[in-house]
Structure prediction request, 245 residues.
Amino acid sequence: MDHKASVRERVWNDLRKVAVPDSRFHFDFGEFIADFEGSADAVARLTRHRYYRDADIIFIAPDNCIEQLRLQALRDGKRVLMTTYSIKRGFWLLDPKEIAAEDYEKAAMLDGMERLARPVSLEQIAALGRVDYLVTGTGAINHEGVRFGKGHGFFDAEWGILYTLGCISEETPAAAVVHDCQLLDEKLYPDTFDTVVDVVFTPTRTIEVSDPQKPTCGILWDRLEPHMLDTIPPLQDLKRSGRTV
Prediction:
């Protein structure tokens, strides 16, 4: 078992004790990022933080533990860029000016989001300008902000796409929302394309990361799993566009 897989398996054993099962995947943490006991407290910490307060456009991953963040962002008048279930179904924009307030709760849920959000192409994303903040759940993370997701690489691909489009830079803050049991006090070994975060929010703690080393490479096409390019339209569009970092 490789380094990342062994870390995930160890953390997932603990996470099962506090996780909320998913109606589609139950406790298969390789297929979804779970909600957990105390996630509302972690999200509350995030929304009090300066990165959130200063942001207009936030990329929020389609993770169960940050559904309430998507709702709060809409209530706070922030635009939410996201994917749904996975990047395979493209990018969507939740704009509170385009959605009735009584529909915000439905829009924050994955099953309702596609009915109320607006699908956006890579050109339309680039036209939005700067994305101010990125937020994700994850599988395991350490105090240095090195995160191992569920193993598919979707968030790292999303970072790479937005970086190539010029919407984010290595200075763009990123955050992870996790349960305390997912926070490890040990060395984790990231790949070149792994997205390190600036701050970690748990139900009980806010951990600021000193000098997080984020990827500056965009998409590494020669290291991309072939099935990702075959099944993810935004990656296909990016490759066809010929855009480079």
Observations:
- The domain at 3-240 is CATH 3.40.50.10420 (Rossmann fold).
- Residues 3-15 form the longest helix (13 residues).
